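Fold it.
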Amino acid sequence: MAADIALTRPVTGTAAGIPFVAVPPATTNDPAPMVIGLHAFEPPRSEFALAGTLPLASLPAWRFYLGLPLFGSRLPEGGIAEVNRRGQDDYLIQLYGPVVEQAAAEIPRAIAELRSRFPVVDDPPALMGVGAGGAAVLLALAESRMPVAAAGVVNPIVGPGPVIAARSRRLGVAYEWSDTARDVAAWLDFTGRAPDLAARRPQAPLLIVNGGNDDVILPEHGRALHDALAPHYAPHAVRHILVPDLAHTMGPEPGLEPGPPAPGNVLADRALTEWFHQHMRSADETTVRLG
């Protein structure tokens, strides 16, 4: 652990090449649990924006918000124009799928380096994601052996189909489904992959938050994932909630900084905070049961 870490204010940096914003717990300077957060393609589309949109301010834990591949300081050569080109050529195969796959694979490496630099306890971390960041969290749960204390996803892309359909409606251009694209979509369809999520041992308690004003990922998409998982989880270990005022886009463009607090965002933040309070260990108690 670095001796010069400031324990009272956010810290920025990179861990394993991944940009992050680290926010310390407000209530203690002792080692605390850690939460890893991943932002969306839509606002909040940066680690800074997510830190302000879902701050989890009352949670006695370090919150580490990570930047996604191809976003912010990780733009590829050619910048935004190159990202747009990939999306236009094949949004699923060249942009969405690779970003979600890489983001999920990076989580364990980021955690390992952050543990060496910040005063966190040795207990498993919690994972949090919004939109495509939520898909990366679900992919990590489905495919990694990394221990996870709890997970919470907000407006998660539970499958690429609705996003592709919404993008086609907005652009007025139909997506050309190839066999490869269908394979990628099936791989990232987490309702279809519910057995992989349910087979994780130990299971991570999972909260799925959907917005009533989300016109891309509808509440029934999150409910379908919940219903597919519930028979295989312990009672109350998977939960679905609907936040009526929450939209798919959780802030103003360009989405690199947090917008003013919105009612739906505040309620989603409260739900995540209570979920993590309930399911994460604290530094000085065996189990926190505040939710």
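Confidence is low (pLDDT under 50) at residues 282-291.
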